[in-house]
Design a protein that fits this description.
The complex is a heterodimer. By secondary structure, chain A is α+β, with helices and mostly antiparallel strands. Chain A is built from 17 helices and 26 strands. In chain A, the strands form 7 sheets. In chain A, strands 1, 2, 3, 4, 10 and 11 form a 6-stranded mixed sheet that branches. In chain A, strands 17-12-13-14-18 form a 5-stranded mixed sheet, sandwiched between helices. Chain B contains 7 helices and no strands. The chains are: A alpha+beta, B mainly alpha.
Amino acid sequence: MTLLQIAEPGQTLAPHARRLAIGIDLGTTNSLVAAVIDGVPACLPDAAGEVILPSAVHVAAEGVTVGREARARASDDPAHTFISIKRLMGRGMDDLRTMRPRPPYLFAEGDDAVPRMQTPRGPLGAVEVSAEILKPLKARAEAALGGELVGAVITVPAYFDDAQRQATRDAARLAGLHVLRLLNEPTAAALAYGLDKNAAWSGVGSPSGDTRRAESTDGLRRQTEGLIAVYDLGGGTFDISILRLRKGVFEVLATGGDTRLGGDDFDQAVAIWLMERAGLDVDAGAWLDAGEQRHLSRTACELKEALTGKAQTCARLDLRGETVWKGCLTCAEFNTLADPLIARTLAACEQALADAGLRGADIQEVVMVGGATRVPRVRERVSAFFGREVLTDIDPDKVVALGAALQADVLAGNKPADEMLLLDVIPLSLGLETLGGLVERIIPRNTTLPVARAQEFTTFKDGQTAMSLHVLQGERDTVEDNRSLARFSLKGIPPMAAGAARVRVTFQVDADGLLTVSAREKVSGVSAEVQVKPSYGLGEEAIERMLRDAIEHVGDDVAARRLREARVEGQRSLAAIDSARAADADLLTDIDRPIIEGARELLERAIQGEDAEAITQAVEQLEHAALPFVERRMNRAVSRALAGHTVGQVMNDMVADLNKEP
Amino acid sequence: MTAFALFGLEPALDIDDALLAERFQRLRAQFHPDRFALGSALERRLAVQRAADINDAHATLADPMARARLLLELRGVSMDEAATVQDPAFLMRQMDLREALDEAADAPARERLRTEVQGLWAADWAALGQALQADEAEQARRQLQRLQFLRRFLDQLPRPAPG
């Protein structure tokens, strides 16, 4: 495999050396894939020239279809046509019961934490369905770019919690994609607009074919610092993010939103209005079967879209071969339906501004993202809220994928490293259950990522050797009002008097917003065993099983794929250690040297073998052996940075060392 | 590694805010996990850890109270212990201030009170610095408790309506 090469500052790699990386917008309604080609991000079309892939999956005994063809089956085979599956990501059965409209699927008996839907090809979860959407996007990218991908940046709503993010990552893995980063959608949009800089990203061009953009952002481009709001109303989710931009640094100050509010809800409001007009009992909506429900939703959606730019629009609603309603929806009527929903988004904007310590007037630009921001009433109300015209120049359907492609290009090492930095925050507070069903906050929302916080616990009984902890995410004070993320059992605490043990539990959230927990008993020095039982996630075994059961495994041998992946990771480790040894040989001690050498040879041999598990183990051994050395190098890098080397120099030294070919 | 050491700063009560900001920029750019997207699993893990440490250290150093607490901790004095300092003079002052707050009916009166408390804060801050310099841990702890009260008092003081 080709390992990374060194990029000098300000110089990009020769075309043949470019690593192929893509950005994917995995949306509720539509999904897109984009890549940077010749310095310009572009959405990649399918064979028919369409860039938008409807996020619909139809599962039949004879095969799986994705996209337009699948969406067309929504009304005639609703139980096996999965649309808006994103709403189910990371959700448990309890969530689904309260979801409106109720998903028209038959859920298989079994695990309530990870619901699975019945299909002619066996039970499928939201992760597997999402993986089906990702697969054709991956294939499309490989065909368009002509090679193997080093990885993908996948976007998620900023307000996604840990379970939803983990589910997204799992789906990508299932689709055979290496996730370089989960990127928040609003941050991706800000990136695509290139609002942070003068002209360096001017290559963004005008993907919508709209030339106003260059003029409208010209003012901001001359500035080096700006405060912007990204208002992202997608099909099923709403996000608001407040960012500070300066010279390539995109710093999220606050984020807020609602993962259960989107364009679908506008359709739903129109659907209810339609039913009332048609004299159908809304509460007894149950007499409509799933297919008729979907037909109703579709009619409502078409009505909404047709209304854009008009005073009124007329249509008719047919059910069971009968016209049940014929009439018109006026703009004023629609606005009355939309206003309560828009008001909810504005309340979230208010909160995000308060969290950032800002007022509406401080915001210099408001970027609109998501198909639902095409609704004129939304634009009007958001403009009024912030007291300025909103930016809508880049196609709101494409802007997120384009931003993700830009970030993927940087992460793949095709751009000098110090050109761009994205600093995100955790959208929802993390806490632990305490006595009386209350939640103690450990990491407050809007803390910059990555973050690690430790908390000490003690035993309350003599001789207690285990302790269980319950991790929650949310802003409420009581356990039942927050999302249960995981339960941990700390075992192997040495028996001591009550209160004598000191168990230090560390919560770490990485740049993707994903949590890991570790624990150690301090008095005895014993590392307590941590058992992770994600309440809504998938364990490693579940992923393995899904990979095996992958519903479409034509030409994709799971064992072969695992071996390939293990080898890639093994090569990466070898390359990293070799260049580190070359760069900082003086930091090696007589103790390190032979241990690292031994572990290195072991790994080299394992890579030549056929056993993926052996390779993975050898990688772990090498990393364990090299840990003290690598930590010394990190410390040296800190002192270098502090000694006045520019970020560019140090970063290039570091990254080049880490990545260069052995 | 202490927060001060991570930022290459001498442990001190007063630090150069501009220097702190500049080093924070530099360090977090360097150790952001995105810089290691294609690195080995170990490097990615260490980068996340280091980046988290940098963020945490910055939060401590940027907040004067947290910075002061850290300085005391470095001298083996924990502020978590609930042991209240017997300080009758300061208790008296607390009561006076609360009374003054009740009496400050309008915005100008509250602003006068704010200015006054800020003055007290500055004096106690200087005293804390002296106590640390003289290595008088108990005195330093008492000063820090006074400062904590004054900080809370200032935070609770209603701000004039914006605009």
